[in-house]
Amino acid sequence: MQFDFSSSSGTKPILKYNPYSWTKVANVIFLDAPVGTGFSYATTDTAYNVSDTSSAAQTYEFLRKWLVSHPSFLANPLYITGDSYSGVVIPIIVKNIQDGIEAGHQPQMNLVGYTLGNPVTCDEKDMSFRIPYANKMALVSDELYETTKTDCNGDFQNVDPTNGACLTDLEMVSLCLEKIFLAQVLEPSCNLISPNHTRLKWSRSILEEDTVNIVSMPHQSRPWCRPANYIYSYIWANDEKVQEALGIRTGTKQEWNRCNHTLSYTKDVLNAVVYHEYLSEKTLRALVYSGDHDLAIPYVATLDWIRSLNLTLEGSWSPWFVEGQIAGYSILYSKNSKYDLTFTTIKGGGHTAPEYKPKQCLAMVDRWFSYYPL
């Protein structure tokens, strides 16, 4: 199901059938993680203290328990999937599962691969590609880009505070980008985005919206902005009848928020590439996709870490089609005839791609799960 935005009012969200749900091609477990997100909760205060690695360990433990309770799914091919910041945690989860398989842990999982969409991998490197991407998208001129690259010695993140020329260049870049919606550069910029988004040290909070602003959105006169639609998820998820239908335990959550800013979360993995290096030695499949209009985690940043894995290139950069139209461009890599990684762009997609291009993303995973070329 999905929200019918055209039929919904500010106080009554209406649902409609989603013809592009991934549940059409797979059995899907939707997991609120880390603990404290969504409707998930802990019974002690200390249990809310989680990190990248501990959250991954908890997810692995959950999967083991779930498969014990649902043994009919044990033979099914298992894929671990996630978007955005899951790009850090998913590879850790996959490694935990792979290690458990090799150690003989029960139940034995039929791990086949993983998918990542617009994935965060290394904050610093991901962000360093925003300016090159902005140049590719004609948001920053060639002249300004080349001058900034020279004056900043190619490092747009760790800037010497005494380098006046670099700082001036970065201010000019910021002026070019301050009204750009980072999640999809062609859509209107919204006040739901962090007010600090004009600085080059952008934080992950650019993808998060403020609860108070969300609730007040319908009372403000402004151009349509995609995050304004998030008000419907807030109203719907906090409806008592909805929570009762979902089986939410009474009293476990005072309020559902799309983004929980109160989490006690430690980012203890600064670069997830090492996990991909490990996984590339195993018999696994990987699908990595990027909306090509995402400035938050640009596709060029994702391609950079993929290329750092020193995989073998299998073919050329090629378009793929949905209903006769180009849906994106893909390329295949492999290693030791055991591991293969497909990277693809989603044409016109933002952060994250399935929200913007659901039909194309369903076709993508349907073909990939079936071992068909995109």
TrEMBL record:
Presence of the UniProt keyword NADP in the record: no
Organism listed in the record: Eucalyptus grandis (Flooded gum)
Family: Belongs to the peptidase S10 family.
Top-level lineage group: Eukaryota
Presence of keyword Protease: yes
Name under which the protein is recorded: Serine carboxypeptidase-like 18
GO biological process, one term: proteolysis
InterPro entries, per the entry: AB_hydrolase_fold, Peptidase_S10, Ser_caboxypep_his_AS
